[in-house]
Amino acid sequence: MCRAHTREDAVHADVAPCHSHAAPADHDYPRPRPDRPGPDHRRSPVTSTPDPTSATDGRPPIRTDLEQLRGAFGFGVAGNFAGHLEQAGEASDFVGVVAEQGAPKGIFPFYVPGGDTFLGAFPLSSDRTPLPVQDEPANLQLEPEVGVLFRAVYGSDGAVAALEPFALGAFNDCSIRRPGATKISQKKNWGAGSKGVAAELFAVEDLDPEGATREFRLASFLRRDGETHPYGQDSPLPAYSYYGAQLVDWMVERLAHQEGGDGTPLEDVGALLRAGRPELLLVGIGATRYTEYGETTFLREGDVSTVVVYDGAASTPEQVLAAVAADDTSTLAGASVLRQEVVAG
């Protein structure tokens, strides 16, 4: 549910009402501090302008502001869904990575605000995926994920001491299958539009698998030549290997202790954060397993990809597929939808 339940309440609460089961948005959304980098310190990276239609269509209450997300550090979680790395042909990259049984393999950066490498290119879009400009074929795959916005709390030593989630929705961690890449990040950011985040997100206070997101599901699709194909397996969010407090605590620990160097596809993400101390983080918490179609199909110009995070108590997988196939997801109650057209770079 949202903090405001009627149109009048929404005006006073500055949150659009909806019928989703997301946690109440009863806190101020994080804003960049005056001494932190960001395009405009007076504005929030997400907005919540009341929408008179959302009282009946069940849309999530938070609207993303891509310009403000330019100040949000981006990283992803590798291997947080059993079988995905094997399907993506990346399991061999992690042969030398030591991880507990059932745990994700590690974290990787995809966007460093103000960075002077390829990771400094702002990659987020809510409507397009440009193909990279390169001589060899661009073997791109949709990576359907849940994206979570966190507020970072730093300790006296400059390291991240806690991560506080406040928004959640559909995310595309689109990747180039680039043989020979020595770091996961080299497959993740080729410039503008190489990542996708939904224009509307759910307000959340935690990721408790028994809490507000317990019925939420993640689905993805690809439309090609007029036909819509399931691309990733429709999966409940609590089916992630690590979710809830276990995932958040693990990420904080990885930010403190994960190392980079030769012979590992991982990097010292914590050091990148300590250098800039951004308050806002956008985290892709892991891709689902592919369908047979998704595992064997690369993106090409003219395709349309769709990632949906939806409340399974409000919509069925069949209803989600039908809405995406009809190219009209406005009928879905309680859904964060990311629709991106694949275009020439």
Q: Explain this structure to me?
A:
This protein has a single domain (62-343), classed as Fumarylacetoacetate hydrolase, domain 2, CATH 3.90.850.10. The radius of gyration is 19 Å and the shape is globular. The chain is built from seven helices and 17 strands. Helix content is 15%, strand content 29%. The chain starts with 6 loop residues before the first helix and ends with a strand. With 345 residues, the chain is an alpha+beta fold. Strands 1, 2, 3, 4, 5, 8, 9, 11, 12 and 15 form a ten-stranded mixed sheet that branches. The chain has a five-stranded mixed sheet with strand order 6-17-16-13-14. The relative contact order is 0.21.
SSE topology sketch:
Blueprint: H1 7-13, E1 46-47, H2 54-57, E2 62-64, E3 73-78, H3 84-87, E4 106-111, E5 124-125, E6 128-130, E7 140-141, E8 144-154, E9 160-172, E10 175-176, E11 195-197, E12 200-203, E13 216-224, E14 227-236, H4 244-257, H5 269-276, E15 280-287, H6 292-296, E16 304-311, H7 317-325, E17 335-343
Parallel strand pairs: 3-15, 5-11, 6-17
Antiparallel strand pairs: 1-2, 2-12, 3-4, 7-10, 8-9, 8-15, 9-11, 9-12, 13-14, 13-16, 16-17
Helix pairs in contact: 4-5
What percent strand? Answer: 25-35%
Unreliable spans: 1-43, 48-58
Name of the top-level CATH class: Alpha Beta
CATH topology: Fumarylacetoacetate hydrolase, domain 2
